[in-house]
Structure formats: structure tokens, C-alpha cells
Design goal:
Helix content of chain B: over 70%
Mean pLDDT of chain A: 82
Number of helices of chain A: 8
Largest sheet of chain A: none
Helix content of chain A: 55-70%
Order of helices and strands of chain B: HHHHHHHHHHHH
Low-confidence stretches of chain A: 94-101
Distance between the termini of chain B: 79 Å
Largest sheet of chain B: none
Low-confidence stretches of chain B: none
Number of strands of chain B: 0
Structural class of chain A: mainly alpha
Radius of gyration of chain B: 29 Å
Oligomer: heterodimer
Strand content of chain A: under 5%
Shape of chain B: elongated
Distance between the termini of chain A: 54 Å
Strand content of chain B: under 5%
Structural class of chain B: mainly alpha
Order of helices and strands of chain A: HHHHHHHH
Number of strands of chain A: 0
Number of helices of chain B: 12
Largest interface: A-B, 50 and 37 residues
Mean pLDDT of chain B: 81
Radius of gyration of chain A: 20 Å
Chain lengths: ~190, ~250
């Protein structure tokens, strides 16, 4: 992957647009260096290192998806290393003391959150499984809107609707439908 | 935001949740939220849906990456210390002549034969590849294979469903091109036993080469002999015979 600063911005644009194949490519490309480095640095087993690497890519994508990361001022590998280090430190804090001078690398990724830290809430899990069972078009509309953050007009185009307003009213129906599912669930 | 008073409009709620309101709009909305329990409930519902959708998609992404990881060859060799690497180098230097004497010369010969005869099977000759625009893992993988990007081809083809025989065929060839014949062998073996697979004989040929590459000349010989005896394809028979002669 050719990686100048302008190219990096293009990569971010493509990822924001939902090009998940590109994320696979980034995964494969940086994997060897990342796994070698993190295994050695934190004395991790292969599976734990791979687990952190996956979550690093997810955190990276989450930052882009939510619009927190629009421009990469360092190269991709440095950025991924800094997220990975942060995640590893969060998970292994009790096992290892952080050295102050090591923090220099973390600067750019300081806001990184463990991508799964807040998903455990009961309500989130309930809605998650209801969403996964939802029929079309609701499933796609909600996914495009809340996950890929597409506008109503963009969704209209992707899912072949007449216009943004049609999607908007369909989405409202989906939201009501979900709400009713929970009302029924609560009375049972 | 057309109607600044109708805060329970989905537009307002979503704009609030996705952080798209200006500071002053946000203030107004938060005030309304404090004073209107129905609005509060509605916002909670929207928030839960947003979080549920995000949680579901994050989990799907994690699964996707786990699967991708599973298909890749182990990434890391433990780095040796400076001292360790010197010792290892010295041992290797001492043992190297012994290795050449002891190792069967067939081994070297097998590798050379493989290098002489292995050529990735061209995609177009097959005629069953779908249009260029398709972006499912199968088409993406075959395109990567065609472009000589075998790592990417492996990544994509491993992600596709196991039902596609063409997919496993090109996956096996990508492994071989990537010097990993041992992973190619089980895939090719399945294909050679599949009467309905149109490239069955090609798969047999490549299975023979994979055994050569993998340092199993006896198995290679058996496979190539059977190809030589049974194949209806004259050029394959000829290739099998040449390799057998040279072994």
C-alpha cells in the first residue's frame, strides 16, 4: 500500500465509506510487524497478541467511523502500534508498570477506548439481539444509518429508495417496531 | 432542523445522539430533555438502538478479523538474542556439510523439479469466473490471484464459503505460489476425489507437484503415475511423464 500523507487521508476516506476489504488489507499488511513487536514488548502469547491486534484494528476503525480520526499525521504502522500499546496497557496494567518515557508514542492515540468496553449493558445486548433478528429493510437501514453513518440520501441510493424522505419514514417505522417488540417483551 | 420546538422529531433525536447539533441547539435540546419525560424515554430508546446496532456490527467485524487471522500463516518467529543467534549460526555452519551428506538428494531434486514445472494455473482458461465488478470474497480472491498477489488471494479465498470448488482450487494454488505446499495438499486431494469438478485432472497434476514441494517424492510419484495412466489430456500426460522421468 503506497502510503504518503495524502494517500493516508484517502485510505481514511475509503474506510469511512465502509470499504471493509481495505481494512483486511491493512490487517494483513501490518500484522507481522505488529505481532512481533507486541509479543516481545508485553511478553504475550500468540493468541493474546492476535486478539489485541484485532481489537486495535477495530478501535482504529471505530475512530474513523465516528469521525474522531480524519487525518493521520504519522504512518499507519506507528498509529496502530500506539493504539495496540494503549489496549495492551489497559488490559495488562496490573502485570506491568508503565514507564513514563514510553508515553511519547501514545500521544496520538490517547483517546482510544477499548472497543468492547461498553457493550456489556443489558439493554444494549437486548437491542443487539433484536436488531440481529430484524427483517429487511429495517436491518439494513439501521445498520447503514447508525453504524456506517450514512445520510438518508445516501441510504436511499444504496438501498434503491425513491428519496431521503422515504427512507426517513421507513426508519421511523423500524424504530417504532423495535420499541413495540420491547414493550411486548416487558409485559410477558 | 425545521421545527425547533418539536424535539421529539427523530431528526432532532438522531442529530443529538450523533453529535451533529450546534452548541446552542444542544443546550435547547438538553433543557427540553430535562422537562419532558416522554422525550427522555424516546431518546433512551434511540440511544439503545444505536448502541445495539454498533455492538452487533463490532462483533461481526471481530469475527471477520478472527477468521482472517485463522487463515494466515503464523506471523512470528521468536527473535533470538545477539548471543543466541551467533551460537545458532555456528551450529548451523558446523552441521551444514553433514546435512547435505545425510539428506536424501531426492529432496533437492524434488524442489528443483517443482520450481521447473510449477506454474500457477491461468484463471481465464477456466471460463467460470464471474464478472470483474463482483466484490464478494471469491471474485476478489481470484482477481488477487490473477494479479499475483497471493497473500491477498489467500486472505480472500479463505474468507469465502467452502462450497466453491474453484475457490478451493485457486486457494490451493495461492498456497503453492506462496511456498506453503502443505496447506495446498488437503484441498487438492479433496478436489481430485470429486468427480464433478471440471479441473479434477489439473488438481491431480498440482497435487503431484505439491507433494514434490513438500518433500514427499513417493506420494508425488504415485499421483503422477495415476495421472499419466488415466488422464485424457495429452499435454498433462506428457508433463506427468517428463517429471516422472526426471525423478
Amino acid at each position: 500500500m503506497n502510503e504518503g500523507s495524502g494517500n493516508r487521508d484517502q485510505l481514511i476516506e475509503r474506510l469511512k465509506g465502509g470499504d471493509m476489504g481495505l481494512l483486511d488489507e491493512i490487517y494483513v499488511e501490518n500484522r507481522g510487524a505488529f505481532l512481533n513487536w507486541i509479543k516481545q514488548k508485553f511478553n504475550l502469547k500468540e493468541e493474546d497478541a492476535a486478539d489485541i491486534y484485532q481489537d486495535t484494528l477495530i478501535a482504529f476503525y471505530e475512530n474513523i467511523r465516528q469521525g474522531k480520526l480524519k487525518h493521520l499525521s504519522v504512518n499507519m504502522q506507528t498509529y496502530l502500534f500506539s493504539i495496540g500499546k494503549n489496549l495492551a496497557l489497559k488490559r495488562h496494567r496490573s502485570m506491568r508498570i508503565i514507564k513514563k518515557h514510553e508515553n511519547a508514542l501514545i500521544a496520538e492515540a490517547e483517546q482510544v477506548e477499548d472497543p468492547f468496553s461498553e457493550d456489556g449493558a443489558e439493554r444494549t445486548q437486548e437491542v443487539k439481539s433484536a436488531f440481529e433478528k430484524m427483517d429487511e429493510p429495517c436491518h439494513s437501514i439501521l445498520k447503514q444509518y447508525y453504524y456506517y453513518r450514512k445520510s438518508m440520501a445516501e441510504i436511499a441510493e444504496v438501498l434503491d429508495y425513491k428519496n431521503a424522505d422515504t427512507v426517513k419514514s421507513q426508519k421511523s417505522r423500524c424504530m417504532k417496531h423495535l420499541k413495540e417488540m420491547f414493550k411486548i417483551g416487558a409485559h410477558e | 432542523m425545521n421545527d425547533r420546538y418539536n424535539y421529539s422529531d427523530p431528526d432532532w433525536i438522531d442529530a443529538f445522539l450523533l453529535d451533529e447539533l450546534s452548541e446552542s441547539q444542544k443546550q435547547l435540546f438538553e433543557e427540553a430533555l430535562q422537562n419532558d419525560p416522554d422525550l427522555k424515554e424516546e431518546v433512551e430508546h434511540y440511544k439503545a438502538v444505536k448502541k445495539g446496532v454498533e455492538a452487533s456490527e463490532k462483533e461481526a467485524l471481530k469475527k471477520r478479523l478472527v477468521k482472517l487471522e485463522e487463515g494466515l500463516p503464523k506471523a512470528t518467529k521468536r527473535r533470538m538474542t545477539w548471543y543466541g543467534s551467533r551460537v545458532a549460526a555456528a551450529i548451523i555452519l558446523l552441521l551444514l556439510p553433514l546435512y547435505f551428506i545425510l539428506s536424501n538428494l531426492n529432496e533437492v531434486n524434488s524442489q528443483e523439479l517443482f520450481a521447473d514445472y510449477f506454474e500457477p494455473y491461468p484463471v481465464l482458461a477456466n471460463g467460470t469466473v464471474r464478472g470483474d465488478a463482483a466484490d464478494d470474497p471469491l471474485s476478489e480472491g481470484i482477481r488477487a490471484y490473477q494479479g499475483g498477489n497471493y497473500i491477498m488471494a489467500i486472505t480472500k479465498l479463505e474468507a469465502q464459503s467452502k462450497d466453491s470448488k474453484n475457490g478451493s482450487f485457486y486457494l490451493a494454488l495461492s498456497y503453492m505460489s506462496n511456498d506453503d505446499a502443505s496447506r495446498a495438499i488437503p484441498l487438492l486431494r479433496d478436489l481430485t476425489e470429486d468427480e464433478s469438478f471440471q479441473l479434477k485432472e489439473q488438481a491431480t497434476w498440482y497435487l503431484g507437484l505439491a507433494f514434490l514441494k513438500n518433500g514427499e517424492p513417493d506420494k508425488a510419484r504415485r499421483v503422477l503415475q495415476s495421472l499419466y495412466k488415466t488422464s485424457k489430456d495429452a499435454s498433462l500426460r506428457e508433463k506427468a511423464r517428463t517429471v516422472l522421468d526426471e525423478m
